[in-house]
Predict the 3D structure of the following.
Amino acid sequence: MNLVDIALADLSGAETFPLDALMTLRQKWSEARDPLFCALDSYASGADRSDENASRAFFGLHLMAEKRDAAAFAPLVAVALEGAPLYDLLGDATTETLPSLFISLSAGDFATLRKLVEAPQAHEWARVAAIEALCWFVHKDEIALAEARTMFSGWFETLQPRETNEVWYGWQSGVALLGFSDLEPLVARAFRQKLVDNNILTFEDFQDDLRAARADRDGFFEQRGLNPMDDAVAALEVFDVDAEDPEPPAPAENKFRDVGRNDPCPCGSGKKYKKCCLGADRS
């Protein structure tokens, strides 16, 4: 076996974070790219959803995002549209790195990102990530602000389901990210109708976010960790596990996953989560 074959095998079977394998594959990308894409494509098609192939596809997807390999976008979206298989592939990266994956891989295909937002069968957090990716492109002037305002206003009337769902968390977050003060009354209605889970977020939290984004939009995007994936290894280090842990590195567990913004921070500081570790957890 050559070095690339050994590294690919390590992705599939390693019980600890495969740092050496990732570094090898990055350095020998011309040889590594095709087998990594094949792992992702076979997962997306349903041909191979074994744990071993899912692990290889997981790491390969992040390396392809670093390389801006837009061919990975279609299979990623296909999995997201299925719903549950996305979490089986990404684990808690579904809420950690998926926005960066969409930003890095979409190559200007804003129509597909919008289709994903508007697909009620898609994984809920993929819809949120697609909204956040669209916001990034608005922030970078690749989508006109007026067009985005019309899009967000229209979504208030058309997004499904018309009940509490994470997509509404993403919708109000996008309104805040882009500083759309004129849409604040619609957000207030969304909270009154309990479209947004008030146990996770309150209308006052939205208003805080809106003010913060209007004061420093660059800083607010940075705080949220919304940016392209320039270093896949650094982005994946959050999923490192102890060498004695017998579980594979993906999917990983996130200790903040079920913590509401107004709950006491798990770090023990005595502060609310939103005023303490939330920014670090999102970055």
Q: What stands out?
A: The longest helix spans residues 29-45. Residues 242-246 have pLDDT under 50 and may be disordered. The two ends are 38 Å apart (CA to CA). The CA atoms of residues 8 and 35 lie 8 Å apart.
